Amino acid sequence: MSKKNKKNQNDEAKAAQEEVLNEENTEQQAQEQVTEDEATPEAKIAELEEQLEQEKKEYLFLMADFENFRKRTIKEKADIIKNGTESAMRDLLPVVDDLERALEAINKGGDLESLKEGVDLIYNKFVKYLESQHVKAIDSTGKDFDTDVHEAVTMFPAPDPAMKGKVIDTTIKGYMINDKVLRHAKVVVGN
User: Among 28, 46, 113, 181, whose CB has the most other CB atoms within 10 angstroms?
Assistant: First the structure.
């Protein structure tokens, strides 16, 4: 054999060996790829389970926070209802003090004119307090009868035809608080 032929054979043998090695490497890479592909779904499942567990924990923390918020607001609302009248009652105490002084003056037999003046002052103080609490009297006499704010106690023949269906007299004043009826006015209606 000539050197050329030997060299060609050697080259061919090397090429064949390289080809076999390449095929073995390719086959090995394919097996590794298959192994990786098989491991990937398991890894994905594990990752998803971990993510689900984390989401569950966050959900439970959120639910606990919401439950605490709900309990706190219920307690605060109960406290407001329980203590809501505190300031209103505190502001009424001076009126009670004035009434006690007036009763004391009546029992001592004081001057009737000064006693009347004192009761008028107490009444005006109390009306101002009601106004500060947004309570106002319903003006009824001479107005049209309105079932939303009036309660008819009796019907009376109208002294004038223009007074039919109108309030002739108010027996008990009605009051509104913030445009809501606190107590209906008890009235006599013209018939």
Answer: 181
